[in-house]
Every structure is written in C-alpha cells, then in structure tokens.
Amino acid sequence: MNANILDSKGQFLPIMESFLSIQGEGFHTGLASYFIRIGGCDVGCHWCDVKESWNPDLHPAIDVKEIVKKIPKHIQTIVLTGGEPTLYQLNFLEKLLKTENKQIHLETSGTGKITADFDWICLSPKKNELPKKEFYSLADELKVIIFNKTDFKFAEEQARYVRAKTQLYLQPEWSQRKKMLPLMIDFIKQHPQWKISLQTHKYLQIP
Questions:
Q1: How many domains does the chain have?
Q2: pLDDT tens digits, 60-76
C-alpha cells in the first residue's frame, strides 16, 4: 500500500523504521524506549539529520498492528517521531498501544493535528513553519534547536506561548555543538528556567 492511499482511520502508516533504543534527548533522556518513526515531513529543516524521512512515498504503508506486535512486552515507553507524526491520524495506533498499557510520547514540530491522546508531548518548533496554536497549550516539553545566535531569541519568543509547567530545553544542532554550547551555557546561567538537552544517543553511538 502506497503512502498516497493511506486510510483515514490510520490503520496503515508510512513507517520508516521502528526500533528499541535509549531516549537521547530532553526530559526523558536515558529512558529505554521503543521508537516508531513515521515518514513524511512538511517542514524540511536544512540541518535535519533524518532527511530520508521527509518523503512518505519512500516508506511503505504498514499495518500498525504489525508494528505494535514487535514491541517488547517489558518496554513501556513508545516514542512517535518522524518526519512529522501529526500529519496522520494516530488514534488507531494510540488505542492499540493503550491496550498494551504503553506510555505514548510524541515528538513533533506541531504543524499537523492532535488526533490522539498522548502521555507526553515534546514540541520542537521551527522558524520556517510555526506550530499550530493548540500544541503550545498541550506541550509538556519545549525543545528548541540552537543552530545560530538568532535561535536564542526565537526560543524566548516560543516560551511565551507554552504553559508555566512546560519543561524548557535548548539543544545544540549537532554540527554546530562545539560553537553553540559555550553560548548556551552562558545563556542558561542568565535564564535558569531553561535546561540543556544533548543528543546523548549520538555520543553513545546508538540509534
């Protein structure tokens, strides 16, 4: 089944990959998690490290029941990532995962729609395609990628829209980390409501 003829119920999704690993970023860093990466993205950041996920037609539309069967029983946390997962109907997948008593974490730029009930939402807004308003009020975590100095101002602007309890993270873009980390450290010393997120999975050399 091609990604262009996905059913509206979300039973079939263009899955790029699914795998067991360790969450490398943000609030849940270090947590054993099962990742489901869904193909298709409407943002297209030039520094994206998963550009192969952008075109959904490159990834077969798979019955999500088959994906759920692969998840180890002892793993509780499922991370839906992309691409941009919210471009698709995720309610069917959510119900399957909840039947298995899984915790569902969503990683999103917030450009699509909320079609399911998530246990944790990590919102990572991008300048070239801002999130829909509803994502700000639902975000448990705001993670802003720092590629250059202007991203600090962008981060502060985005933080105005989220809830007071939302966890705030700055994460260096991988190729710029040596240049930006000293600036991030200085910024956070002056703005302690923010924390640093590192792509620890890359340091650990795991997916």
A1: 1
A2: 899 999 999 999 999 99
Q: In terms of C-beta density within 10 A (0-12 exposed, 13-18 middle, 19 or more buried), how is residue 172 classed?
A: buried
Is the pTM above the cut of 0.70? yes
Q: Distance between CA 130 and CA 73 in Å, rounded?
A: 37
pLDDT in tens, 117-126: 999 999 999 9
How many beta carbons lie within 10 A of that of residue 20, not counting itself? Answer: 14
Return the sign of the alpha-carbon dihedral for residues 172, 167, 22, 128.
negative
CATH code for position 99: 3.20.20.70
CA–CA distance from 95 to each of 12, 130, 160, 184 (Å)?
A: 14, 28, 33, 39
Domain coverage including residue 90 = 3-204
Burial class (CB in 10 A: 0-12, 13-18, 19+), 114: middle
* Residues contacting 136, CB < 8 A, separation 6+: 110, 123, 161, 162, 163
